[in-house]
Amino acid sequence: MRKVATLDRGLAYGEACFETFRVVDGNVFALPEHEQRLTRAAAQFAWKIDASALFKKAIKSAKTEGRDVLLRLTLTGGKAPWGVLPTGTIPAVYLQVMPASTRSPLHLRMVDCGSISLRNRDVKHNSDYADMLRIYQQSRHQLGSNEQMLFCAQAKIISTMTANILCYHDGQWITPEDDHLLTGIVRHLLLQKGVISVGACWQKIAKECEAMACINSGLFIQAVVAINAHVMTVEGKIFQPLYDFFRGQAGVPLCL
């Protein structure tokens, strides 16, 4: 046991927010949207930040790590003495850098959230992800060795821990209604361009749809190989509209 006089407020009270994004050849896909979302998240803690300056510094750091890296930019309330009341209003800034993850076959297993209620959100607060971690810790025994968790609530599909979900059903790509999930920048832009639409994704859709995909600002799009051991289509023309949306845009890898 380590004795400490102070703790970071993100650790002590969950007073923290973050953005995860990929830097490809010095570019970030949908950079203005990431800056705006971090600004909105910080404002909920009454922090005034220069998001553009923060992202410029982060991107500069990324260039020293390689041509294609994944970054997590986290803001917290800084050092906290004993007690809930904050001592200042200037957030501490942390940057994590890692190589962009390689794609491995994506197998999902549906897990019910049970009594833990996930919250609908349009920003990334660290405290929200604590709920997901609780569900994961309580339910990970249900997962096979190569499976990742797909959250479900009230018989509906929600999302994975780090990505929104898409289902190809009745000739179109649909994404779950936005109860209990992070709306997501990639998801928002796909909806805005009419590439996907919103619909009720009941759990039974896993056996009815031809294909599924996960989307986020790190992987952009990844086909689901299987869900609950039910094999899905992972290639073909049904994926073409999704790939066409990303190809050629700054901050998106050429291999997509």
Provide a short characterization of the protein structure:
With 256 residues, the chain is of the alpha+beta class. It has helices at residues 9-13, 31-43, 51-63, 126-139, 185-192, 205-208, 240-246; strands spanning 7-8, 16-24, 27-28, 68-76, 79-80, 92-99, 106-112, 147-153, 156-160, 164-169, 172-176, 197-199, 211-215, 222-227, 230-231.
- The CATH class name of the largest domain reads Alpha Beta
CATH architecture of the largest domain: Alpha-Beta Barrel
Multimer state: single chain
Find the count of extended strands (DSSP E, 2+ residues): 15
Order of helices and strands: EHEEHHEEEEHEEEEHEHEEEH
Question: What's the average pLDDT?
Answer: 92
What does this entry look like structurally?
This protein has helices at 9-13, 31-43, 51-63, 126-139, 185-192, 205-208, 240-246; strands at 7-8, 16-24, 27-28, 68-76, 79-80, 92-99, 106-112, 147-153, 156-160, 164-169, 172-176, 197-199, 211-215, 222-227, 230-231. The protein folds into two domains: 7-99, Aminotransferase class 4, branched-chain amino acid transferase, N-terminal domain (D-amino Acid Aminotransferase, Chain A, domain 1); 106-246, D-amino Acid Aminotransferase, Chain A, domain 2 (Alpha-Beta Barrel). The longest helix has 14 residues, at 126-139. The protein is built from seven helices and 15 strands. 30% of the residues are buried. It is an alpha+beta fold. The strands form three sheets. Strands 7, 8, 9, 10, 11, 12, 13, 14 and 15 form a nine-stranded mixed sheet that branches. Strands 3-2-4-6 form a four-stranded antiparallel sheet. A two-stranded antiparallel ribbon has the order 1-5.
